[in-house]
Amino acid sequence: MHMCRIARVVEETSIHKTIFFDIEMKAEPGQFVMIWIPGVDEVPMSLSYIEGGTGITVEKVGEATEAIHGMREGDMLGVRGPYGKGFRMAGSKALFVAGGTGIAPLLPLIKRYRGEKHVVLGARTKEYLLFVEELKNISSLSITTDDGSIGFKGFATEMAEKIMEKEDFDIVYTCGPEIMMKKMLDLCMERGIEMQASLERYMKCGIGICDSCSINGYRVCKDGPVFDSNLLATMDEFGRWKRNEAGRRIEV
Q1: Which domain holds residue 120?
Q2: Where are the alpha helices (DSSP H) in 70-129?
């Protein structure tokens, strides 16, 4: 655990902030850190910036994230990691499909990927879109919103399917709601395209001890959070079930 000072806070949207720390961290795209908010909780966070600064992008959804949103430059947070298995570079033409804050772990990968890059960025509404200008500069970007406030009206998977009908890809990378990623897996399996997905599960330890993040016997914190399509296709829990803080199985 490192006690880190917040070096910079960027307000991305009304519910998203990017927090930069005063440390350099050797991490791979797709890895995560455990963030300790003194007196509140410890939670897992994907790294949205790993080069030219270490940062996380936080959506305000509960007590811990609300506490992070209330912090300012100079405040202290505990950071441990990086943990988990990140994305593996493959091919020379990739499709990246992100839903909501799922773009956070994909952003470092998109920046580092050296081949042709097509990105589908989805959000509920235009006010919640993240990193649009950055992505426009480094990729071919397609935007979708559930309400049609900007770009294609519909889900990111619908736009991805349209693009896949016109373009051939070596690999698909995805992160977002699990229902979305399950649909992307089905599309990729139909077309024989490799896919890598970053999963989210309830995590307590982050290092493979507590088993709270288990999916079909695999630990998301240790064996993932990135899994490839061959393994995902064998998981009957993927896109269907997860466990809550009490360990009870609930629908995704």
Answers
A1: 93-199+231-241
A2: 103-112
